[in-house]
């Protein structure tokens, strides 16, 4: 919402607003260019589609003078409505009533709509603006947070959960928010933390602002808690609507299809020259992705975090796909702890909701670093390996350039049950890079050679000819075809069509034990 846009123009009278909270709090809200809870829902949902549930519910607390402070709704607006005619269940915290804090009745209202969403196979959208648990209600408020968290877990993988932090999000509210499939944060107005700055100050003696501790940029860039960073309330709600357009309503449905504006046989000659002649030179994998997907429209997730890998949603021939790609522009596309976690969670989301996966590979391996080893790169990389191996949706992989060592295996190779694997002629699929391989194989010979560098160069050229090309992998059946780059889009679309009825089972079990 632009600074000049007054939320009061959305059609709610002052009397109607006061039914939702303290009038001074509402004016403070507008002063921060924030909408009220009801206004946010009106902007999010199709016009006149919202049906509110339990609007007159109030807390039952009688301690600390709360018996004289009762506001209809008890700090949260819940109900259902439609987005592009699709049913969704919603809840929106009302910061103008008790700071949007979670009390017993508040929690029961939120739990009810989550339960209804699970039963009806309907997405859940939550708009968070809460100071945390309601201290005046004691253990009842804490129990309420636990009940909400349990239901968020129960809904995970059953119906999509999209939450937007549009103000503070503290304590128990933050923990349940992190379970959501997608979390949006508004720059400048939202903050999220398990422990507030005040508690940190009193217990640890550290003076830190809410923005520095858990602001939108912190969680979008450093922690990876936030999936999307938006500039204001209005953009946040637009992005929620767009995100929902890619995903099905539940785990039993196929993703929605869009009207096709981009031909399936479209080619792009730019791709024939996107790989630099110097194999160590960088290029932008997003250029490849934009070229291939419908209408060059790629909805990137976690764009500021772990930028050495790219994930997001797009469409191919009108159908939703999940995109994962190494990014040579950052760390040469090497895989580190954060890239592994980022991609693994996205892959598991796509698999849970029947979204095919398309993977673009260009990685020289895992980031060689002492801190990475000490912090558990092996364990974290195994999350990525586990996620791809576990996924049963159609999986298509394209190797554009480097695919070395176990990074080749992990990035959705045939060996972890990818369905169709392509490579460009520029692909190098090998145990390791040519220079490292020559040092390993011919180390003793090179140590004794008088013209060491010249001999090493000769051996490297020979190694590249023999091993660093996709032909060997294709001969072994690890690559289905070596394709001309400009044909990438039609090739992937045809592969998706061939896999549209794919059904793949796994051995029965309660659940696996992913290396968290």
Describe this structure in words.
The chain has 19 helices and 16 strands. With 516 residues, it is α/β, with parallel strands linked by helices. The protein folds into three domains: 33-244, 2-enoyl-CoA Hydratase, Chain A, domain 1; 269-431 and 469-498, 2-enoyl-CoA Hydratase, Chain A, domain 1 (Alpha-Beta Complex), CATH 3.90.226; 434-467, no CATH class. Helix 4 (104-120) packs parallel to helix 5 and helix 16 packs antiparallel against helix 17 (452-467). The longest helix is centred in the N-terminal third of the chain and has 17 residues, at 104-120. The protein is elongated. It starts with 13 loop residues before the first helix and ends in an 18-residue tail after the last helix. The relative contact order is 0.07.
Major sheet attributes: 8 strands, mixed
N- to C-terminal distance: 39 Å
Q: State the share of residues found in helices, binned by percent.
A: 25-40%
Give the CATH superfamily of the largest domain.
2-enoyl-CoA Hydratase, Chain A, domain 1
Counting DSSP E segments of at least 2 residues, the number of strands comes to 16
Number of domain units: 3
**Unreliable runs, pLDDT <50, ≥5 residues?**
1-20
**Based on CA inertia axes, which overall geometry fits?**
elongated
C-alpha Rg, in Å?
Answer: 26 Å
Total helical segments:
19
Oligomer: single chain
Hey, roughly how much beta strand do the residues contain? 15-25%
């Amino acid at each position: 919402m632009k600074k000049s846009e007054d939320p009061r123009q959305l059609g709610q009278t002052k009397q109607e607003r006061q039914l939702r909270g303290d009038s001074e709090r509402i004016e403070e809200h507008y002063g921060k260019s924030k909408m009220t809870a009801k206004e946010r829902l009106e902007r999010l949902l199709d016009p006149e589609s919202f049906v509110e549930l339990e609007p007159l519910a109030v807390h039952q607390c009688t301690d600390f003078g709360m018996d004289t402070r009762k506001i209809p709704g008890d700090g949260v607006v819940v109900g259902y409505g439609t987005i592009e005619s699709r049913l969704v269940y919603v809840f929106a915290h009302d910061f103008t009533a008790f700071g949007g804090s979670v009390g017993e009745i508040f929690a029961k209202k939120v739990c009810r709509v989550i339960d209804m969403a699970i039963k009806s196979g309907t997405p859940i959208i939550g708009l968070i603006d809460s100071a945390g648990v309601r201290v005046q209600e004691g253990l009842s408020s804490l129990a309420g947070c636990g009940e909400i968290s349990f239901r968020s877990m129960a809904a995970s993988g059953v119906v999509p959960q999209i939450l937007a932090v549009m103000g503070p999000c503290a304590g128990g509210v933050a923990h349940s928010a992190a379970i959501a499939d997608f979390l949006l944060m508004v720059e400048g107005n939202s903050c999220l933390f398990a422990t507030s700055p005040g508690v940190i100050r009193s217990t640890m003696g550290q003076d830190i602002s809410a923005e520095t501790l858990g602001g939108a940029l912190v969680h979008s860039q450093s922690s990876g808690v936030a999936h999307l960073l938006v500039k204001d309330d209005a953009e946040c709600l637009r992005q929620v609507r767009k995100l929902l357009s890619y995903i099905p309503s539940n785990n039993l449905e196929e993703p929605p299809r869009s009207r096709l504006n981009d031909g399936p046989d479209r080619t792009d000659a730019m791709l024939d020259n996107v790989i630099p002649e110097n194999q160590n030179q960088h290029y932008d994998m997003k250029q490849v992705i934009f070229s291939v997907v419908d209408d060059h429209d790629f909805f990137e997730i976690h764009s500021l975090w772990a930028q050495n890998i790219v994930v997001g949603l797009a469409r191919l021939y009108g159908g939703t796909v999940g995109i994962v790609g190494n990014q040579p522009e950052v760390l040469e596309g090497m895989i580190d702890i954060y890239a592994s976690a980022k991609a693994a969670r996205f892959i598991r989301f796509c698999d849970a909701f029947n979204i095919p996966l398309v993977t673009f590979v260009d990685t020289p391996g895992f980031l060689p670093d002492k801190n990475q080893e000490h912090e558990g790169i092996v364990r974290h990389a195994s999350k990525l390996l586990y996620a791809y191996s576990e996924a049963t949706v159609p999986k298509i992989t394209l190797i554009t350039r480097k695919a070395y060592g176990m990074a080749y295996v992990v990035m959705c190779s045939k060996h972890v049950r990818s369905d169709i694997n392509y490579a460009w002629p520029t692909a190098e699929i090998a145990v390791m890079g040519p220079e490292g391989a020559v040092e390993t194989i011919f180390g003793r010979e090179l140590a004794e050679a008088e013209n060491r560098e010249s001999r090493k160069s000769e051996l490297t050229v020979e190694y590249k000819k023999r091993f660093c090309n996709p032909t060997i992998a294709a001969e072994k059946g690890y690559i289905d075809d070596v394709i001309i780059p400009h044909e990438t889009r039609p090739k992937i679309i045809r592969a998706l069509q061939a896999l549209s009825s794919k059904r793949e089972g796994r051995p029965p079990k309660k659940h696996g034990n992913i290396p968290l």
